[in-house]
Amino acid sequence: MKKIFKNIILCFSLLALFSSCEEELDLNNPTALSLEELLQTNNGFELLANGVLDAYQKVPANEFLLVELRTDNSRANSANGNLPNISAYLVDPNNGDVATYYSNNMATIKHANTIISNRFLAPESYQYAVGEAYFMRALCHFNLVRAYQNVPYIDKVLDVASDEALDYPQLPEAEVYEKIIADFKTSIAYLSGVTADKYRPSEGAAICLAAKAYLSQPNPNYTEAELLLASVIENSSSYGYDLLYTDYDASLSAGENNYNQVINFGNVFGNEFVGSYSDADGTPDGSWTNNSGLEKNNEVIFSIAYDYESSDNYVTSDSGLDDQIETDSESFSFAMTLQGGSNGVNLATLDLLEIMTPELEPVRFYGTIDVITYNPFEITTDTFNSKYPTDGEIGDNDWIVLRYADVLLLYAEAILGDSDSTTDTRALDAFNKVRLRAGKDELANLSKADLLNERRLEFVYENQRLYDLIRFGQADAVLQAFSDANSLNYNPDMKYLPFPQREIDNLPNFYTQNSGY
């Protein structure tokens, strides 16, 4: 029983390494300051907060494999080990990605709880670190409850030498969401008035993610979600949030206007286009490359930063706090890059390519699909995504956790509520902003089907599709039909991942495996 979190708890008593003239946090240094010593330094809480973000850099590494790969958007080719099994809904409780995703989220929770447990020691100037800790604890549990459904909610640093884990059983999904929302709301109070940094938790991000949790819980609270999202949308200029969008310029050709929108959409992900375009329709001819100078844009609300170094380190420099966060060899998900996973994991399904076409999606297609590999007529042809254009297995695209297009569509969803459709002008205005940026016609009546389809096209490869289908109550219908058409193995139990077998083994007869595994 004492081994319960052996693999997910990192010792924070050996913590900080100071290198050169910058403050650099290295969790691998065995001669670093103790926690007690760190808390007595002028900026100890800042370093602890950086440690939380450092730990979270590991979380997105395999999220794509467990979330997007189990939808009708993406598939793995047959040359990729057990990954085709994941996309075929054949996931084992002993699967390494299943266990690692769980433990990486729990490790980040542990780091956040270190701050929360010592929050009364935080100087006034570092109260934001406490808010960030509550935010990240909520975010990680949000990841876990959506992936595994019934999970423990860990609200303290557990003593691995005791049986404290027995105090943290799996909770019903609804109870987990109550605690997630409470943590997000607590973080809002701590982060209120703090200068926002897109590489750090912020008040605006906490408000929006609390709203998303309200919509995701088993019994959605549309009213509370609407109020929270409205408070951000109605004050978007003060938050600095907006879509990357260029108004139509009558002095330009239709082709150039369309090309400008293509570029804007790519810029959301920190990508710039190298090439030219056709005057006739704005079709780009060239390729995308990551440009870190574009990554902190007005559409991004919260992202996890990655920078590629010539060594195999990832370093993030968060603006305004004069420090660095370093982790070793962690890309957010090399499987999603153009050459990740031996060129065979980030592949578009033919189902997706039926609706993600140059004709139907004149803007989003070129920022989403690698045109050179595009062939919608042959399943054996690998069509890659271009949202993460790193040339290799590691790279420097940031991982976007939340962006303003999501906020607009969540707001429309909250207003739509339990109705099948709405003509509410607030919902239509929010929805149509995303449509117009994508080069699509406005709608005068918004249905749930319209909203779900728009989210699929806007957020493809961003690990949203599976959770959207579950939230809209469409997972079984959509994924069963997709599975049947492609001879896969979906059944209603497959919406959620198996609870990691090693967690069950660590506490025999304490945790319960999810149905179907």
Task: List the topology elements.
Elements: E1 17-19, E2 22-25, H1 35-39, H2 44-56, H3 63-66, E3 74-75, H4 83-87, H5 96-117, H6 127-148, H7 173-191, H8 203-216, H9 222-233, H10 236-239, H11 254-268, E4 271-277, E5 284-290, E6 300-304, E7 313-318, E8 323-328, E9 347-348, H12 350-353, H13 364-368, E10 399-403, H14 404-416, E11 421-422, H15 425-437, E12 446-447, H16 448-458, H17 465-471, H18 475-485, H19 501-506
Parallel strand pairs: 2-8
Antiparallel strand pairs: 1-2, 3-9, 4-5, 6-10, 7-8, 11-12
Helix pairs in contact: 2-5, 2-6, 5-6, 6-7, 6-8, 7-8, 8-9, 8-14, 9-14, 14-15, 14-16
How would you characterize the overall build of this protein?
By secondary structure, the chain is α+β, with helices and mostly antiparallel strands. It folds into two domains: 222 residues, Serine Threonine Protein Phosphatase 5, Tetratricopeptide repeat (Alpha Horseshoe); 185 residues, Serine Threonine Protein Phosphatase 5, Tetratricopeptide repeat (Alpha Horseshoe). The protein starts with 16 loop residues before the first strand and ends in an 11-residue tail after the last helix. 51% of the residues are buried.
Task: Compose a concise summary of this entry.
The protein has helices at 35-39, 44-56, 63-66, 83-87, 96-117, 127-148, 173-191, 203-216, 222-233, 236-239, 254-268, 350-353, 364-368, 404-416, 425-437, 448-458, 465-471, 475-485, 501-506; strands at residues 17-19, 22-25, 74-75, 271-277, 284-290, 300-304, 313-318, 323-328, 347-348, 399-403, 421-422, 446-447. It has 517 residues and is α+β, with helices and mostly antiparallel strands.
